[in-house]
Every structure is written in C-alpha cells, then in structure tokens.
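Data availability (excerpt). The following record was deposited with the supplementary files.
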Amino acid sequence: MKIMVTGATGGYGSYAIPFIREFAPDAEVYGIARNESKASDLERQGIIPRIADYSDVDSLVRAFEGMERLLFISVSVHELQINVVKAAKLAGVQFIAYTSIAGIENNKFPKLQ
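Predicted structure:
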C-alpha cells in the first residue's frame, strides 16, 4: 500500500508519520515537500519525498500518482485545499483522511465520486 502525507515536513505531518508506520508497517510512506532541501529531510527519515506546490494542481497530481491513500493535513487557505482535493481525484487516490473540518459549513469542497 502507498500512503501520501501532505504537510509531511510540518508539525502534524511529522507527528503522524510514526503512527502510520506503526499501524501499516508494510506501507510505503510518501510525503509532500516544497523543495529539494525539505525532500532531503524526509529521505533521512525514510520517507519517500515528492515535490509539489499546493498552488500548482499539476505538481500535486504528479505527486499523488500511484497513491492509494492520502492523509490530507489541512492548510489555512481554502483555494489550496481545493487544489489538493482536485489533484487527488485526478490522480485516482482511493481514500482520503482529512484532519480538519474548517470550511465544511460552506459545503465548498468538490465531491469525490
């Protein structure tokens, strides 16, 4: 199984990764990094990095290709969150776990069908 973690270099993402490894020890764990420096940090932790920018849907689609599951750690900019959902859908991600309900009251998130 391949699991992608957005925000893998941040506080919540780096905290969640050891739990993913514990509960899915055979999974390949990937993480989004914004640049090569951050990608190197992930590699040192045994995470497979993929570089993407939340404002660039195409880069997210490339990063999500082949992923079965996504731990989507929310960001504060609604438009960037929509980009992540769009990219996951386009890449064929089968399951998304989302860490926040911010903005859900406005029902602005695209449906994953």
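Summary of structural features: The radius of gyration is 13 Å.
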